[in-house]
Amino acid sequence: MPDMRRYRVDNCSIERTLTVLGEKWTFLVLREAFNGVRRFADFQAGTGAPRQVLSARLARLVAEGLLRKEPYQEPGQRQRDEYRLTQKGLDLYPIMISLMHWGDRHLADPDGAPMIVTHRECGAPVRLHLRCAEGHEVAGPREVTPRPGPGARWSASA
Predict the structure, then answer these.
(1) What is the rounded distance in angstroms from the CA atom of residue 20 to the CA atom of residue 41?
(2) 3-state SS string for the chain
(3) Model confidence pLDDT, tens digit, residues 22-39
């Protein structure tokens, strides 16, 4: 097994993801977007974010390609923008569900989970499963081996 400490981590995918997502308001904005929220005032009501913070988070999510703006105009009002998830944003859904399930398991009130996500077609609760490319279920980190990928960089100090 390769010694992963001998590889540089300056191109770590986890670190790069956290650079985009790694703060509370971003996840709360995404939660609202996944729940169908599209307008600034509704994001603000759902997240409780201060106006400037919310504006900055929405702008960042648009700049990163997770949300896109679509103009709309109510009769007699000025044109405004709605925010809609892009495919890049939609690809975060398993992460959001995983965070929710972890919170439900370790941080929920004694009464249980505040929300249950169900499959629209049959009504059964949604569950995440980690599988290898051959389809085997992976129960946890003790069942995997980290290996250098095609983008791995050798560390000169190792």
Answers:
(1) 23
(2) CCCHHHECCCCCHHHHHHHHHCCHHHHHHHHHHHCCCCEHHHHHHHHCCCHHHHHHHHHHHHHCCCEEEEEECCCCCCCEEEEEECHHHHCCHHHHHHHHHHHHHHCCECCECCCCCECCCCCCECCCCCECCCCCECCCHHHCCCCCCCCCCECCCC
(3) 899 999 999 999 999 999
pTM: 0.84
Residue 82 Cα to chain centre, angstroms:
19
Strands 80-85 vs 67-72: parallel, antiparallel or unpaired: antiparallel
HSE-CB of 134 using CA atoms within 13 angstroms: 2
